[in-house]
Design a protein that fits this description.
Strand order of the largest sheet: 1-2
Strand content: 25-35%
Number of helices: 3
Number of strands: 4
Structural class: alpha+beta
Largest sheet: 2 strands, antiparallel
Shape: globular
Distance between the termini: 30 Å
Helix content: 10-25%
Order of helices and strands: EEHEEHH
Length: 79
């Protein structure tokens, strides 16, 4: 398990987008096994657990589409 922030949703909310540094161990883990489970908790204590398959997207236009300055610490300055 790793704590990550949801960056965006596509495909009517079916595709969940997360940012990560491609040099981290997370990408090695996904290449070995693309099965994932995500747990979400809101401030009122309601939660959801979602499982599925993950893929690593390195397309620069996709990265820039969801880039925010707060991500600079993890993925560098794309601004």
């Amino acid at each position: 398990s790793r704590c990550m922030a949801l960056a965006a949703q596509e495909g009517g909310g079916v595709d969940l987008i997360f940012h990560t540094n491609t040099e981290s161990g997370k990408t090695d883990d996904l290449e070995a096994d693309s099965s994932v489970n995500m747990a979400f908790l809101n401030s009122s204590g309601s939660w959801a657990s979602v499982s599925g398959k993950a893929s690593i997207i390195t397309d620069r236009s996709m990265v820039k589409k969801y880039y925010t300055p707060a991500l600079k610490t993890w993925v560098g300055d794309l601004g």
